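Need a sequence for this fold. Nothing fancy.
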């Protein structure tokens, strides 16, 4: 894997080792966390949970004086109401979940990007239905989750390749139902995220495109048409009342990121993650190769989130369209490692 999606196994290790040496050389004793026990909510999903699980399993949170419990939700849609009700304090999830809270003027802050998961969103087709090119989707039956990234991805894909969506019979389905319908032959294609892309391939499907890669015959190769981030976000009151705890969490995640970035740890990473995420190692390796894990905040994150906000607002999913810069808070990550923050 040599493109940006797979950078965790290549050049990122150099930056990680250098950052680790700089940190070790200039480290000072960290302040005691105000709150030592913290629940962080996420999903059993390689896009969202990898660094969290590694930080817990390798004792990186414990080294920072924290007892972090990972709580798994069934769907990202559980997070906004849970956080609004106070039952969820911090979460790692797709950016649209944080965006929806910001759009409702809820006091929440994004404190880090966990990864660029654009390559783990995609379109699976049934070759037996005669679908080889994007235009072949016209006249076919397609399943899609009409809430958030899948719909946005397919819209951008259609514009990029001149696909007339009015000529496609679209069915709104949840991800597990997409697989069932695809296996039965009730739909010819679907747009969704991992692990449902890999599972569709196991059913005989073929990837036509992801957010970052074309598999269109004759036009294969890197082609970014969509951007999607996974972010770590929390209550505004949490970071105000617990700044040292917030820093300790980010330090633990930075250690996990360094561990993940080191290619020598590849097999160990899979061994640690396969059980908690309930994903077989061969599938996990494939899925992780489609993600770009990065603990950082940069302009690309803000642009990606603003683009998704504009789309979600345009289709009526959001009441307002706040700019990401109004609720992305870089100061904690900057204090942990200035090199991880590339905005002012």
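Here you go.
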């Amino acid at each position: 894997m040599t493109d940006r999606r797979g950078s965790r196994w290549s050049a990122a290790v150099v930056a990680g080792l250098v950052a680790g040496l700089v940190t070790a050389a200039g480290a000072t004793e960290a302040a005691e966390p105000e709150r030592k026990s913290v629940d962080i909510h996420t999903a059993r999903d390689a896009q969202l949970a990898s660094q969290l699980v590694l930080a817990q399993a390798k004792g990186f949170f414990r080294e920072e004086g924290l007892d972090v419990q990972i709580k798994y939700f069934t769907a990202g849609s559980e997070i906004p109401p849970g956080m609004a009700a106070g039952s969820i304090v911090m979460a790692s999830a797709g950016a649209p979940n944080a965006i929806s809270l910001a759009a409702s003027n809820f006091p929440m802050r994004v404190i880090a990007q966990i990864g660029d998961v654009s390559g783990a969103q995609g379109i699976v087709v049934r070759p037996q239905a005669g679908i080889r090119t994007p235009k072949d989707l016209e006249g076919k039956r397609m399943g899609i989750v009409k809430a958030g990234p899948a719909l946005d991805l397919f819209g951008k894909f259609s514009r990029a390749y001149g696909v007339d969506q009015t000529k496609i019979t679209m069915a709104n389905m949840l991800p597990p139902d997409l697989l069932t319908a695809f296996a039965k032959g009730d739909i010819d294609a679907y747009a969704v995220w991992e692990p449902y892309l890999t599972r569709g391939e196991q059913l005989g499907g073929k990837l036509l495109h992801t957010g970052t890669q074309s598999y269109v015959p004759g036009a294969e190769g890197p082609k970014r048409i969509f951007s999607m981030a996974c972010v770590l976000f929390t209550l505004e009151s949490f970071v105000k009342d617990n700044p040292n705890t917030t820093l300790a969490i980010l330090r633990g995640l930075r250690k996990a990121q360094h561990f993940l970035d080191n290619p020598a740890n590849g097999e160990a990473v899979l061994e640690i993650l396969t059980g908690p995420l309930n994903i077989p190692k061969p599938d996990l390796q494939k899925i992780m190769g489609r993600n770009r894990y990065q603990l950082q905040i940069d302009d690309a994150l803000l642009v990606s989130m603003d683009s998704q906000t504009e789309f979600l607002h345009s289709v009526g999913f959001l009441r307002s369209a706040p700019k990401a810069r109004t609720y992305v808070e870089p100061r904690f990550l900057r204090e942990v490692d200035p090199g991880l923050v590339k905005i002012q």
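For context: The chain has two domains: 4-117+228-340, 119-222.
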